[in-house]
Amino acid sequence: MNPEDAKMREPGAGKAADASGRERPMLEVDNISKAFRQNGDAIPALEDVTLRAARGELICLLGPSGCGKSTLLKIVAGFIPPDSGEIRIEGSPITGPSPDRCVVFQEDALFPWLTVAENVAFGLKGRRLAKKALREEVEDFLELVGLASFRAYLPREISGGMKQRAALARVLILRPKTLLMDEPFGALDAQTREDMQALLLGLRERFAHTIVFVTHDVAEALAIGDRVFVMSPRPGRLVLETAIETRHPRERESAETIALARKLRRSLRP
Amino acid sequence: MIRWIVPLLGAALWFMASQTGIVPAYLLPHPFKVAEAGWSYISGASGAGPYAGRFAGDLAASLGRVGAGFALAAALGLPIGILSGRVRMARELLGGTINAARAVPGISWLPLAMVWLGIGTRTTIFLVALAAFFPIYLNAAAGSRNVDPLLLQAGAMMGAGKMRSAFAILLPAAMPHIVTGLRLGLGISWAYLVLGELSGVPDGLGAVIMDARMSGDIEMIVVGVIVIAVVGKTSDALLKLALRACFRSARRMPR
Questions:
Q1: Chain segment A174-222, per-residue pLDDT in tens
Q2: Which CATH number goes with the domain that contains B99?
Q3: Is residue B28 part of a domain?
Q4: Does B1 touch chain A if contact means CB atoms closer than 8 Å?
Q5: Given this structure, which CATH class describes domain A8-100+176-268?
Q6: Per the domain annotation, does B68 fall within a domain?
Q7: Closest chain A C-alpha to B166 CA, distance in angstroms
Q8: How many other CB atoms are found less than 10 A from the CB of residue B77?
Q9: B251 CA to chain A: closest CA distance, Å?
Q10: Domain residue limits, chain A
Q11: Which of A70, A127, B201, B236 has its CA 20 to 30 A from that of A40?
């Protein structure tokens, strides 16, 4: 990695570059603030968060636990409303959850009474689609994430890594514009996590999704992110933005990566 | 196999107690005498003995009462329970009243039910429905209330509307609780069936026990108790089978 590849900037300073000047960003997060009420007190969770993600870009939100990064993701997903600010997808403000913005959750959020294949088919079943076409789509996406031979298993019968593969397939099949990933590989062992990161990068190559990836793992952010945003704890604010232009597959143990990791870790400490 | 050990051991103890005469026959009749009375009750020709040939009619009458009462309880308890679990307004509107009513022992409704509905089938159905309602309602409410919000969020993001969320996510996610509530409700139905039938109806498995008590026929009392145990257990197994046949989520519950 060339040191020039990794540029450190203050957040917001790179706005013009993010939009690349050519097209409208896929995702625009504008001045989002959110506080939670607890025993009558307002606990600020997010403060004035603004970021852009270009079409096909993979941005990582890196921060310690409790910094509000998952809250930000839930707001982008439309599960909870912000107190102030606006979120736009291709220029249109969001109003609630939609297959536009599909989430891969941290925990296992598959439907436990459905098989892997039925879980993957769930979203498409709500759309008018011939039975045969639906079955073929499901087969294709099971194949894509390497679960074809586990189609008839129930979620409780497969491993954590396989569950997250199924969770990926069930949203990819809906052709979302953006993928929101909430520490999706956090509970997996190191080897499985690297496999899943490689799978995600391969899928991104193919579908060119815009991806917002929440993680507390510096190495993970450096391995997959096009840009990394560091969030401060309570209230969550963006304190650092780093573009990583190194091509994939990235060398995990190069001197530059290690230097960058050290820098990110330092910025994570208050 | 293991499940048969305790009943068989109990039967063996009973046999020994009767055979050796430790327990006199007027307190606990000999198992062979009970078997004889039971055989006559179940398969004897009508008129061959005091209870011969009554079984089919008694069983049909009791099944009808339990079926009607239980169905009524489920038809009210499930929707009201699921609604109370999800909608705060419904919970606050109904929860207190239902819990107060639940605190009243079912048997204290008997005199009132007899005044309102007379002695017989209608009172019995009322008691069964009342008793079965509470476990069905409470478990449906707990089940729908405890559904992981993540599952509903996942459904919403995949484009599921309100109706689909209710039937394709909420209901199957609450199914383990719903099944528990229905099974508890059916179990208690049999208890209240006997209570209702003791109040004086001509037929039914509870009525047989009452008749036998009146005429001091202790063998027949024991036969009645055993028949109700067997029929109750069988109805529970059939309920489980029926739920598994009807609902994928019931079939795939972890056991």
A1: 999 899 999 999 888 888 888 899 898 988 888 888 999 999 888 888 8
A2: 1.10.3720.10
A3: no
A4: no
A5: alpha beta
A6: yes
A7: 14
A8: 27
A9: 8
A10: 8-100+176-268, 112-174
A11: A70
B248 touches chain A (CB under 8 A): yes
| Residue B44 in domain | no
| Integer Cα distance of B251 and B171 in angstroms | 14
The per-residue pLDDT for B97 is 87
User: What is the domain range of residue B172?
Assistant: 55-251
Indicate if the pLDDT at residue A9 is higher than 70: no
Which among B159, B169, B253 is the nearest to A123, CB-wise? Answer: B159
User: CB A99 to CB B159 under 8 A?
Assistant: yes
| Residue of chain B whose Cα is closest to the Cα of A101 | B157
Residue B149 included in any domain: yes
Interchain contact A98–B (C-beta under 8 A): yes
ipTM score here? Answer: 0.83
> Is B157 near chain A, with CB under 8 Å?
yes
pLDDT in tens, B68-125: 999 999 999 999 999 999 998 888 888 888 888 888 887 888 888 888 888 888 889 9
Closest-CA distance of chain B to residue A104, Å: 9
Q: Mind listing the pLDDT tens digit for each residue in B166-194?
A: 999 999 999 999 999 999 999 999 999 98
B240 close to A (CB below 8 A): no
Q: How would residue B140 be classed by pLDDT, with cut points 50, 70 and 90?
A: very high
Number of domains comprising chain B: 1
